[in-house]
Amino acid sequence: MRPLRPALILLVASLATACNGGAPVTLTFAGLVGGQPAACGTTYSGVGSTATDLELEDFRLYVHDVRLVTESGEEVAVTLDDDDWQVDDIALLDFEDGTAGCESGNPGTNATVRGTVPDGSGPFVGVRFRLGVPFDRNHADASTAPAPLSFGSMFWSWNLGYKFLRVDARTTGLPEGWLLHLGSTGCEGDGRGNVSGCAADNIVDVELTGFDPASDTIAVDLADVLSGADLDVNAGGAPGCQSGVDDTDCGPVFDGLGLSFAGTPPSGPQRLFSIRAP
Amino acid sequence: MTPRWEYVGRVRHATALLALLCLAGCQPEDGPTYEWNLPAGFPTPPVPDDNPMSVEKVELGRYLFYDPRVSGNQTYSCGSCHRQELSFTDALPVAVGSTGSNTPRGSMSLANAAYHPRYTWANPVVSQLEDQALVPMFGDTPVELGTPDEPELVARFSSDPMYLDLFSAAYPDDADPITLGNIVRAIACFERALISGDSPYDRYTYQFDDAAMSESARRGLELFNTERLECFHCHGGFNFTDSLRQDRSVMDEVAFHNTALYNIDGRGGYPEPNRGIFEFTGDRRDMGRFRSPSLRNITVTAPYMHDGSIETLDGVLDHYAAGGRTITEGPYVGVGSESPLKNLFIHGFTLTDEERADVMALLSALTDETFLTDPRFSDPFE
């Protein structure tokens, strides 16, 4: 009997935690271009390898599988609240407000991920999450899905699934538009939602250290991820980088995302997300 | 003040009137839940709280929709410009009102209108069918139906025993159910019931009937969903549009796009009075931005675009393949593909003859013969 007692206490404690809903945690993100707040219709200078001017017209992304990391290196999963911006532990970050050229967007914005962790599981020193939509939710019809998976403007088609990251912009060299649409490619399916798998899931693993969720912000800076990309020309494929394996504009962009492109591994981890202390 | 703004002001006035009528006429509905009988794959349409669906209101709305007594001179009904066999369009480049005036734009299909977050071609504020109905009824620039003011309108229906029964059944808790508000609400209920989801595409996609869609149409569907053609960005989802609302939406997705149909001044200009939501916002970047219509039943809704300026679907494909239309003569000369305001996805493409046939086969597969002939949606006076 005796050895069982601590386990029993733990079980009771965890049940109590579940009933209490755990400790709330909010991760705050900041959409940026070169350190400046991202805003529809704003023009940013010095972006990409040609230091072009970039006018922003959309900036949204999905994240999922959010975990906080304790000092001992243990991962604690964050259970996301279900609300207008989060469903089944998938969240949409939305840095556009539908104004001034953001014609694909909508008025709502969201810069936080809200959820709970088990009581007493902190303090935390790091955060991990994945940019994208998990495979088992990625190939349903967005036009009938619950929010925030309901946005058709964030959906390609059943075979391709969602745009994990959508950035629409106009640049000096491409006034008609430069687009970054990240998503899975090479997906095998029948165009009716039956997808067996994708050659490249293009989901980005993010791991950030030195993070205090109570005070720090997670910067999502487009200038950092696009630093090696020439945004003034469309070298091949669809305008900008739309993830296609023949879309040669994607090489330097995928490198910034820490993703392999057309068989070439990235030079390092992703550069889109970083920690900003207050 | 341009005529367009007067028109907007008039509609706002009428909207306020309707709001008052609704406040006065609202009562809890205890009747059975309306059965949508939705096609497979379709979400439930959103319904405003003050106008729940009922079989009786849909039926009353059907009579009113097809009744010329709604127009001032009693010659025109809603159905005059929205003919069922044409997916509730009228085959005209621009609609013609009951007194012979041309409206600036073509009659839009009413198929699946329940899912639209905004109504008409380019109106960022009309977000309910109840409000939209007031535009053709009471708009005077131009006159469409020229509907008389409420007392005369009510008198026309109050003298008809059939309508006394229909209104009583639709609004059983109202002592005097024949009101402008109740007329509009019933028409809106009928329009929400106009669900089109039995096309070959639907049978193939949602009912997994492989034989429903030809090989050619299936190749067309693949092409439709490529970054080469980019069709799906603006015409995606079950309703083939990027302006969508369903009961699980938390925010309307409202999209208005400039498709480079015109570039009359080298700055992306569109000819008056069809300059898109620029007419409302005055923001030059909104020049030429119109709502993406659903492509359902698109083969029967010619001519195309907001002003009916492209006669055939082949012509529409030519326009998008060129990345914008070039007009070489007449008052609207300009190279659309060079418009600085055009949507990012209008970048042009080339199609082989076979690929073009495949895309056309897909578009044909969106035609829902059941919907176009459904007796529930037909003119009860015929």
Can you walk me through this structure?
The complex is a heterodimer of chains A (278) and B (382). Chain A has one domain (23-276). Chain A is 10% helix and 38% strand. Chain A has three helices and 19 strands. Chain A has helices at 4-20, 222-225, 250-256, and strands at residues 23-33, 36-37, 43-47, 52-70, 75-77, 79-80, 86-87, 90-94, 112-117, 124-131, 155-157, 161-162, 165-171, 178-182, 185-189, 195-200, 204-209, 217-221, 273-276. In chain A, the strands form four sheets. In chain A, strands 3, 4, 5, 7, 8, 10, 13, 14 and 17 form a nine-stranded antiparallel β-sheet that branches. In chain A, strands 1, 2, 6, 9, 18 and 19 form a six-stranded mixed β-sheet that branches. Chain A starts with a helix and ends with a strand. By secondary structure, chain B is mainly alpha-helical. Chain B has two domains: 3-196 and 371-377, Cytochrome Bc1 Complex, Chain D, domain 2 (Orthogonal Bundle); 200-369, Cytochrome c-like domain (Cytochrome Bc1 Complex, Chain D, domain 2, Orthogonal Bundle). Chain B has 14 helices and four strands. Chain B has a two-stranded antiparallel ribbon. Chain B has a two-stranded antiparallel sheet with strand order 3-4. Chain B is globular and about 60 Å long. Chain B starts with a helix and ends in a 9-residue tail after the last helix. The A-B interface holds A 41, 57, 84, 98, 100-101, 103-104, 106-108, 141-148, 150-153, 155-157, 159-160, 168, 170, 175-177, 179, 191-192, 237-239, 242, 244, 247 and B 41-43, 204-206, 208, 218, 221-222, 225, 227-228, 230, 232-233, 236-239, 242, 244, 246, 248-257, 283, 285, 289, 340, 342-345, 347.
Assembly context of the chains: heterodimer
The structural class of chain A is mainly beta
How many helices of chain A does DSSP assign?
A: 3
| Largest interface, counted by CB within 8 Å of the partner chain's CB | A-B, 42 and 42 residues
Gross morphology of chain A: globular
CATH fold descriptor of the largest domain in chain B: Cytochrome Bc1 Complex, Chain D, domain 2
Strand content of chain A: 35-45%
The helix content of chain B is 25-40%
Computed Rg of chain A: 20 Å
Tell me what the CATH architecture of the largest domain in chain B is: Orthogonal Bundle
In total, how many domains does the architecture of chain A comprise?
1
Number of helices of chain B: 14
The domain count of chain B comes to 2
